[in-house]
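request received
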Amino acid sequence: MDRARNFMPGPNQELLDAKPLRSLAPMFPAPMGVNINQSSTPPLVVVTPVGQFPTGFGAGSLPAVGSLATFSATANAFSPAGTSANVPIDVTPVSAYKTRSSGVTPRNDDGEPYSVSQTSASERQAKRSAGLAAEGSNGVKVKRPKPIYRNHVSGKLLAFLPTSDSTPREAVEAVHMTFEALRRRHLQMDETLDASRRADLKAGAIMLASDIRANVGKRVGTVPGVEIGDIFYFRMELCIIGLHAPSMSGIDYMSANFGNGEDSVAICIVAAGGYENDDDDTDTLVYSGSGGNSRNTEERHDQKLERGNLALERSLHRKNEIRVVRGFRDPATITGKIYIYDGLYKIQESWKERTKFGINCFKYRLQREPGQRDGAAIWKRTQRWIQNASTRGRVIQHDLSSGAETFPVCVVNEIDHEKGPGHFTYTTEVKYPRPLSSMKALQGCGCQSVCLPGDANCACGQHNGGDLPYSSAGVLVCRKPVIYECGEACHCSLNCRNRVCQKGIRYHFEVFRTTNRGWGLRCWDPIRAGAFICEYAGEVIDELQVNLDDSEDDYIFQTMCPGEKTLKWNSGPELIGKESTYVSPDEFQPLPIKISAKQIGNVSRFMNHSCSPNAFWQPVQYDHGDDKHPRIMFFALNHIPPMTELTYDYGVVGAGTSRSKTCLCGSLTCRGLL
DNA sequence: GTATGTTCAAGATG
DNA sequence: CCATCTTGAACATA
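response:
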């Protein structure tokens, strides 16, 4: 529908021509003047296959690989040295590390150099070709090409770094997960020392000093690997993935050469959501210009038409697309803020307005480009459902848990006429074959009131390896073989931060009909990386019990080795110079526990497999001490936007198992079988 | 709950 | 190349 417009020359043509210089677009065999980045199609397909990279560029530094088969092979048989050995790349030692000497050594060590991301590689390509500017007279000049640093911290491979054959989505995810790992780790350390809590800034400083980032350089339009609906909790996250560069300012803009001189255009805004306008209309947005507000030393004054304000004004006339990140109050978090990437908008009009403080301020009305998938609209919708569950339509069962969970678990089918999942009994917890009292007891701590991080006398802290596993916000810092929460033997209160999973589900789940994978699980709430999601409830199968019915296989949980994305979630330590806790697939030790959710279970039994999952399982103990049969808890691998299907990696099945099935996860790095 | 003050870093600018 | 300026978020405290 909107497509025809993309091919028409219009007032924005020069800008459209300018754009591909800074994106992946030149690699497409596209006719001149076609705006490739303009997403009239949903950005689900925005990922660029690696094969798009010309084999010759970058001084031959990129391998001429790129088939998905190649990637799956490396993903399956991951070995750190082997993988990186395939990635020769020009390495520059990291020399700056803002948090002092702790981590960085020049490249003198045994580890292999590692590629930051293909996005950076493409940036280099873009910068090299920028001089040629063969695309026409309107090439955008890159104003300040920055050196591309390679990161090499303490001689260790950095946890989540994408390889050169990562898709843009994987590159962004990898950078983002690295940031989150660093942030959680620094928060944990800060809380131990009761020091400053700006772990977001610390993580950001390390990321930028090491140049671990995606989509370096400014661009108009979509950012490769960033999808509409993606959620964030800190401004620094937007910065390191290349969505919105300024760490504070709400307006990101760039200068460009349009053939007839330099001009500035706005490229991204963060609408902080302070001004709640009409509820239902998420497609228009009124944004206020910046400046003029009173500062400590200055008086209030009228806003001036300069910098960001000027760029917005120029963008009104150029009619270029502007990315919009919308901030909302998130009632679920204490600080209560969440940022949602809402896709591309255009400015319709601007005007001056006198504020209540009596100063003139600029206002801009933005209209969302049609044909994009919902972003902020989903947030508004799910928040409404959370406030009043009866506003959720298409419900075929209002509470699958029959009141067992704090919040009802509804069942919806928007696909076909299935009436609901087959019968089972809902239970909130796993059920052991033997009474808990007969199992080995878990040791407890003697802490009064609550356990505190850094308390050497807290037995639970010591049991967990010295640190409490959760931050004060209840977010898991790092994967571990087992996590020991405080339990009955502990003297601390139920408010202790070391009691998370035992408090049960805190989200509004819905079981929904998928198009091709039966029933699936998703959530109305946003879930931040590291947050506890749910337990795998069911019956623990006694090892003595044999001859299981095959039909039960679909609902059996076993601790099989998950893929790389999950395994690397525990790689925070080496980022701050501590010993890596990475467990390679070779070293992976499965637990004997098997849980069947065929007869009894909870929402977890509806979680489908994905080779690129957003959740992972983690053994947790709190009501007994038998480490071979822990409870299995699911946590978020990365931030999960509302209404995103929750998936985990079912793991690699050993050869000769009758259980292998064709995988339908649809991930670009799908292993094919499960 | 909310009002206010302090501190912070990236990138533009001169 | 470097110093200065511009921004408002995040959080602590009142």
